[in-house]
Amino acid sequence: xxxxxxxxxxxxxxxxxxxxxxxxxxxxxxxxxxxxxxxxxxxxxxxxxxxxxxxxxxxxxxxxxxxxxxxxxxxxxxxxxxxxxxxxxxxxxxxxxxxxxxxxxxxxxxxxxxxxxxxxxxxxxxx
Length: 127
Hints:
Blueprint: E1 2-5, E2 21-24, E3 30-37, H1 49-66, E4 74-81, H2 87-98, E5 105-109, E6 119-126
Parallel strand pairs: 4-5
Antiparallel strand pairs: 1-2, 3-6, 4-6
């Protein structure tokens, strides 16, 4: 069971692409997923941000499937971007991956361990 928490007084408003908080009750399982990159099956990073975003979400869906979950189980997303200019495309990819679901999310600009990595995403899922 999930309940969105978006106070409308005494705090800035939530935007259409995220919520301030998500309360989860009755979950029997929690899945904490490590930072996942947009790498192919042999560990190569494509050259474009779009390709890396496609791969990172495909990789996350694969990890979720192994735990008998889907993107509908995601309750938290943290994105690590190598460039602030990646924020809009990252947001669009997240919204596409989650459909109508809105979950707490944070995007942070960082220096990546490998210069070719443009994006890394970690999630928490509950079932």
